[in-house]
Design goal:
Order of helices and strands: EHHHHEEEE
Distance between the termini: 11 Å
Number of helices: 4
Strand order of the largest sheet: 1-5-4
Number of strands: 5
Helix content: 25-40%
Shape: elongated
CATH architecture: Orthogonal Bundle
Strand content: 25-35%
CATH class: Mainly Alpha
CATH topology: Arc Repressor Mutant, subunit A
Length: about 100
């Protein structure tokens, strides 16, 4: 199990805040079905490709998705989930976010 640490400025984006956004949740639900590209994700959820790319970048910074560059006629970034679930551990004066591995 992976643990995401929240540590000061420049730290990963807060996965809890990211999950509060309906568009981010739609992207994660779509990626739960398999890897995809920004254009296909944008079309599937009804947002612009630029909006999808910004959301994907934030999801990647939060450690929830992974993007890898592929050359298929042109260079495109394919995104996939990195976890099958998220666990919030509440401890003394802090909260830890753990990612459950994909099996």
């Amino acid at each position: 199990m992976s643990t995401l640490e929240q540590a000061g400025p420049g730290a990963r984006d807060d996965p809890v805040k990211i999950l509060a956004n309906a568009t981010n949740r739609s992207i994660l639900n779509l990626l739960a079905q398999g890897p995809s590209y920004p254009r296909a994700i944008a079309q599937a959820i009804g947002v612009s490709e630029g909006d999808a790319q910004r959301k994907l970048h934030r999801l990647e910074r939060a450690g929830l998705v992974h993007g890898a560059w592929h050359h298929e006629g042109k260079t495109v970034k394919e995104y996939r989930l990195v976890a099958s679930g998220i666990v919030l551990d509440f401890q003394e004066r802090e909260m830890r976010v753990r990612l459950l591995p994909i099996r």
